[in-house]
Design a protein that fits this description.
2 helices; 178 residues
């Protein structure tokens, strides 16, 4: 059996850096994310048990990092009486033309990766993640972030268990602190 010969393409460093600079320069989607920077309060309703919704309040600090490329969101509050903290890092990948984010929180040790797109006006970002829930098994997690106006955002979480139907599990309304 003959070995396939690999062809090596050599690109000069300047050409490579030109490409990286172009796809690494923040644009309009990053400016929209930057408009969300600030301190927010949130009101959350969770339907993990559909017959017994949980309500809670919390706070969210949002800031742009790495020269306006990513929005870092730090959530804090209570979940079923326990202190809860979560961090979301969201950005727009100029190369794939998709929003990407990671989520970590104080109730797990997993890192959840989301990817998706925005509505034509950029005010609704829909992303999906797949993960193995330790209690419920494999799920698809869909997050929908709606920018209602400069001072209001709504974040919704939907889950779809393997072989099941999508159901809304959480809704969080964030209001900018004045």
């Amino acid at each position: 059996m003959a070995k396939a010969k690999s062809k090596k393409v050599k690109m000069d460093m300047q050409a490579m850096m030109k490409i990286y600079t172009k796809v690494g320069t923040p644009g309009a989607p990053h400016k929209r994310l930057a408009s969300l920077a600030g301190n927010w309060v949130n009101r959350t309703t969770a339907w993990m048990d559909p017959d017994n919704p949980m309500e809670s309040k919390g706070a969210c600090k949002q800031k742009m990092i790495l020269d306006g490329r990513y929005l870092q969101q730090e959530y804090s509050g209570k979940m079923d009486g326990a202190t809860f903290q979560g961090i979301n890092l969201i950005g727009f990948d100029n190369y794939t033309k998709k929003y990407q984010s990671i989520w970590i929180d104080s109730m797990s040790t997993g890192i959840y990766f989301f990817e998706g797109t925005a509505s034509p006006n950029g005010k609704t970002i829909t992303q999906k993640s797949r993960y193995d829930d330790p209690a419920r098994g494999p799920l698809t997690w869909k997050s929908v972030t709606r920018i209602v106006n400069n001072d209001t955002m709504v974040y919704e979480m939907y889950i779809t268990p393997r072989g099941g139907r999508e159901k809304k599990e959480m809704e969080m309304t964030l209001t900018r602190k004045k």
